[in-house]
């Protein structure tokens, strides 16, 4: 397995990570088998944005004594107040869900505390105004989170968060089709209609974002790598051929 440094954090992550959303709702045996298979193949980073107690507890149980062998991205602001994935910018709610994450995972630290779903300028302003950034910085000072990250699908907002100087890592939606989509486009709303887009070259705003990360030694973990699976299909890929 190849490993790459996570910016200036001193941690190094496998180039293949485990996005665990597909494990939500699965029986414990499936979670355990998947987690153990990842560890056995030297995968050492997992993203846990799912807010439910059951999936978090199952992952914590499956990791067990090997918790130290896995870098965990844990999201602050991901909740399930309406019995489904939701976003909160309320400080007390975010605290409650983060503390439950620690309890569910049977751990006293999270490797990367992620500012969840920074897709709008309003969202970034809210976490500043509501004390959430101060809370995360305090968690880092205490060692409860060892570094700070953010997740986003919007290159302009992502750049603004990065320029604040508080994050070491960005989780961003990157694939050949998204990279050629204009920065102002809602890629999550576009993903079902990739074939309708016009693809010429990488969007300059996205290119500048990636260049900035490289210059500032901010790591990127990638989501939506295959466009929801559409890039694996010759029929559904906008390039009329499957990505390999």
From TrEMBL:
Which Pfam families does this one have?
Aldo_ket_red (PF00248)
List, for all copies, the residue spans of the domain called NADP-dependent oxidoreductase: 16-239
Name recorded for this polypeptide: NADP-dependent oxidoreductase domain-containing protein
The organism encoding this protein is Bacteroides reticulotermitis JCM 10512
């Amino acid at each position: 397995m190849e490993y790459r440094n996570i910016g200036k954090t001193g941690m190094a992550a496998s180039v293949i990570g485990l996005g665990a959303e597909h494990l939500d709702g699965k029986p414990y045996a499936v979670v355990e088998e998947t987690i153990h298979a990842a560890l056995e193949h030297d995968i050492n980073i997992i993203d846990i944005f799912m807010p439910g107690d059951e999936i978090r507890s199952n992952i914590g149980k499956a990791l067990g004594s090997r918790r130290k062998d896995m870098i965990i991205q844990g999201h602050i602001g991901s909740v399930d107040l309406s019995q489904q994935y939701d976003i909160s910018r309320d400080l007390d709610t975010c605290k409650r869900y983060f503390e439950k994450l620690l309890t569910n995972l049977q751990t006293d630290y999270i490797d990367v505390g992620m500012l969840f779903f920074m897709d709008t300028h309003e969202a970034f302003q809210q976490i500043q105004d509501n004390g959430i950034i101060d809370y995360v910085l305090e968690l880092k000072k205490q060692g409860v989170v060892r570094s700070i990250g953010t997740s986003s699908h919007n290159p302009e907002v992502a750049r603004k968060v990065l320029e604040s100087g508080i994050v070491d890592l960005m989780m961003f939606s990157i694939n050949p089709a998204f990279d050629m989509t204009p920065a102002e486009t809602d890629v999550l709303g576009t993903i079902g209609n990739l074939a309708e887009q016009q693809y010429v070259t990488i969007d300059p705003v996205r290119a500048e974002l990636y260049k900035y990360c490289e210059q500032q030694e901010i790591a990127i973990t990638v989501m939506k790598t295959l466009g929801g699976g559409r890039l694996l299909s010759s029929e559904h890929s906008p390039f009329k051929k499957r990505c390999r």
